[in-house]
Design a protein that fits this description.
alpha+beta, Phosphorylase Kinase, domain 1, Transferase(Phosphotransferase), domain 1, PH-domain like, six-stranded antiparallel sheet, 12 helices, 32% helix, kinase
Length: 463
């Protein structure tokens, strides 16, 4: 090994303990050294912050935060904190952070060496990093990496059916969130930073964007900043040979607006690991937009913060048929009950109660509405009559939305199209058919499916 390999610290032994073996990295005011711990004889990494002409106080803040974070966390895929000390040599003053050494190459190094990755391998890398992010974001307060990119992901021990062991390193930009409106230093890497990070703000979803951009680099072989963009959305599809499901997932990971991006590592994992379902073939070309059908009375309001769909009751002959079916159902039920002596004595109550139910059905058919509402935090569906709401099913957090599915329900053996939003195990439905007061036409269902798909960033699927 030459003195050039050792860099500025050739033949140095730091703190009379860490013998420099190799310089791993160098940039203004920073050095990363591979050293041997003379006490344990193990290889360790020493990161140095040097007080030189380019030193700025926020560098020390980030350096101390990295040390504090590594000291507080413990994960097999993250370097372990070992030591922290003041650097005081004849040539350099500063601080040193000692952490465990991971003998692995970065994704960036492997890409530049000509390695390519299959969709299966990229998904394995995504799953591994998301597991790490679940741990980091799940801490109190959440730990946000803020600089996920190919050079900060290490890969080793590749086997035939497995991409290998995946590690996340370099916590020099890490941030712990105590208040959602706190101001942060602008850090990150161009091409991998989400828009909100340019203004010094970061959330757990910021790490998801950076991971998505990293995965796009893996599948296209092109830096995200070199790919075309439209309204800050990375247009990677033409350069990637991947499934439509995975492409849709990556689009959701890299949405420039946080309200449209996947909200958590847990949600991203849930969607990534969903069983493969068939993507619904669009009615029109992929670059066309379905418009609201002429004459539709369905009301849709949406912006970046929410989408609201209001469905009026069916009209005309369908409304009459629903009222008549309820009327005859009540008459038949009363006739059956009146035969039984135990209910005959209750007839003074049963008849008014039945009429009340019938009048309620009539009022719903003329004045009721069904509403589906989704905002940044939750989703709910309710039935409304004269300002009184009944929620069914109960509201769910938006982060639990994992699938937008178009399927068929059956009424009298006839298939009736139905759009279902899955939030965990809860199903929020928009139905088309003759047995539902708040039914929409198939054209309206296709239009609403596309609007929800675009707003949620989820593909329309069917079993």
């Amino acid at each position: 090994m030459t003195n050039q390999d050792l860099g500025d610290f050739a033949k140095e032994t730091l703190l009379e303990r860490y013998e420099v073996q190799q310089q791993l990295g160098k940039k203004a005011g920073r050095r990363t050294l591979l050293t041997r711990d003379l006490q344990t004889q193990e290889l360790v990494v020493v990161k140095l912050l040097i007080f030189d002409d380019e030193f700025q106080w926020h560098d020390l803040k980030l350096f101390e935060r990295e040390a504090e974070t590594l000291k507080a966390i413990s994960h097999p895929a993250i370097p372990s904190y070992l030591d922290y000390f003041e650097l005081n040599t004849a040539d350099y003053k500063g601080f040193a952070l000692v952490q465990s050494y991971i003998p692995a190459e970065s994704l960036e190094t492997q890409l530049k060496a000509g390695r390519s990755f299959s969709e299966k391998e990229v998904k394995q890398i995504a799953t591994a990093i998301l597991d790490i992010l679940k741990y980091l974001h799940g801490r109190q307060p959440p730990v946000i990496h803020r600089d996920i990119k190919p050079s900060n992901i290490l890969l080793t021990n590749r086997s035939g059916n497995n991409v290998g062991d995946v590690y996340l390193v370099d916590f020099g930009s890490v941030q712990t969130i105590v208040r959602s409106n706190s101001t942060m230093t602008v850090v990150g890497s161009y091409g991998y930073m989400p828009p909100e990070q340019f203004s010094g703000k970061a959330t757990p979803a910021s790490d998801l964007y950076a991971l998505g951009a990293t995965l796009i680099y893996l599948i296209t072989g092109q830096h995200p900043a070199d790919l075309p963009q439209q309204d800050l959305v990375i247009k990677f599809e033409e350069a990637a040979n991947i499934s439509s499901d995975f492409s849709s997932w990556l689009r959701k990971m890299t949405q420039p607006m946080t309200s449209r991006r996947l909200a958590s590592a847990e949600q991203a994992l849930q969607i990534l690991e969903l069983p493969r379902v068939k993507t619904l073939t669009p009615v029109k070309a992929s670059n066309s937009v379905l418009e609201k059908p002429f004459g539709s009375k369905v009301i849709l309001h949406k912006n970046a913060d929410f989408i609201e769909i209001t469905i009026p009751p069916v009209g005309g002959f369908s409304k009459i048929m629903i009222i008549l079916s309820w009327y005859f159902g009540i008459v038949l039920s009363l006739s059956f009950l009146m035969i039984m002596p135990i209910f005959r004595a209750m007839s003074p109550l049963l008849i008014p109660l039945s009429l009340l139910i019938l009048f309620l059905v009539v009022f719903i058919c003329f004045f009721g509405t069904k509403k589906l509402y989704i905002n940044r935090k939750q989703i709910y569906s309710c039935y409304e009559l004269f300002g009184i709401e009944r929620h069914y099913p109960l509201p769910s957090l938006k982060k639990y939305i994992v699938r937008l599915e178009k399927t068929n329900t059956f009424y009298k053996d006839k298939p009736q199209p139905c759009l279902i939003i899955w939030a965990g195990m809860r199903k929020y439905k928009i139905q088309s058919g003759e047995n539902n007061i708040f039914s929409v036409s198939t054209l309206e269902l296709d239009w609403l499916a596309q609007e929800l798909s675009d707003w949620l960033g989820l593909p329309i699927t069917k079993e």
